[in-house]
Amino acid sequence: MADTNARALRKSTTEAETVLWSRLRQRRIGGFRFRRQAPIGRFIADFACFEARLVIEVDGGQHTERAEQDAARTRWLESQGFRVLRFWNNQVLREIEGVEEVILRELTGKGR
Q1: pLDDT by residue (tens digit) across 44-87?
Q2: Exposed, middle or buried by CB within 10 Å (0-12, 13-18, 19+), for 16?
């Protein structure tokens, strides 16, 4: 079921997810491989690098109303050994270079 949901989500990505995916795909950031709409347990991560145990979430305005659920999801992912980065849609759309820098620092261990 998670794979079916992930497939459906890949077909209906937001503009911000499309922009970020264009930067993450084909190992364009630090040579790390990302998967988009990747099932992890009962959740589907927007982007995941399993090698670096990093999840990236791109959030729209609806997430202001889901802060508790997002926090619980982050705690669970962290309990599974993942680090979670969250960016707002407008950050990705307006500050993509800065977003890339944060991701690269996290991937290379320089952000910890």
Answers
A1: 999 999 999 999 999 986 656 778 899 999 999 999 999 999 99
A2: buried
Where helices occur in 1-109 by DSSP H, the ranges are 2-11, 15-24, 67-79, 89-94, 96-107
Return the amino acid letter for 106: E
22 within 8 A of 100, measured Cβ to Cβ? no
Hey, what domains does the chain have and what are their CATH numbers? Answer: 2-107 (3.40.960.10)
pTM of the predicted structure, to 2 decimals: 0.85
Residues paired with residue 54 on neighbouring β-strands, in sequence order: 49, 83
Alpha carbon distance, N-terminus to C-terminus of the chain: 35
Q: Are strands 35-40 and 54-59 parallel, antiparallel or unpaired?
A: unpaired
Name the nearest CA neighbour of 45 among 92, 93, 1, 82.
82
Using CA atoms, how far residue 47 sits from 18, 54, in Å, is: 11, 8
CB 57, CB 87: distance < 8 Å: yes
